[in-house]
Design a protein that fits this description.
This protein has 130 residues and is mainly α. It is 80% helix and 0% strand.
């Protein structure tokens, strides 16, 4: 994949979304290899670039944010994942894609998973999140 990224940068450097797509694949591979810290760094970079290029309401930017939130959950960074999902991604997806869109539903499902999965949350926190 790194060789592919080098080729993409060489021949399609004008198409940043193509470069970001390859970086997304690399982040996924890093995550599957258990190199979650490296994957999170790359996912943060990818999400920031998508937001800068297309805005946070773009479907691809939301999916990259979803990937970042999932990586944060893997490392049990509950507060970071909750903040990203609750404050930025879910409201934006509901506004731009609609409440019934697959990405919006997946974001809501991940938010519920984060809230339930966080061992520090009390019953009152979960009721308030409802």
């Amino acid at each position: 994949l790194k060789a592919n990224l080098a080729l993409i940068r060489r021949y399609w450097s004008h198409d940043e979304t193509c470069v970001l797509s390859v970086k997304t694949n690399i982040a996924g591979c890093l995550s599957k290899l258990g190199r979650h810290d490296e994957a999170i760094v790359l996912r943060r970079e990818i999400f920031a670039r998508y937001v800068a290029i297309r805005g946070v309401s773009d479907e691809n930017a939301l999916i990259c944010g979803l990937n970042l939130a999932a990586s944060l959950q893997t490392l049990e960074l509950w507060d970071d994942s909750t903040t990203l999902l609750r404050d930025q991604l879910v409201p934006t997806a509901q506004r731009s894609l609609g409440a019934e869109h697959n990405v919006t539903l997946t974001l809501n499902k991940n938010l519920a998973h984060v809230l339930v999965g966080n061992p520090e949350n009390t019953r009152d926190d979960l009721v308030e999140a409802k």
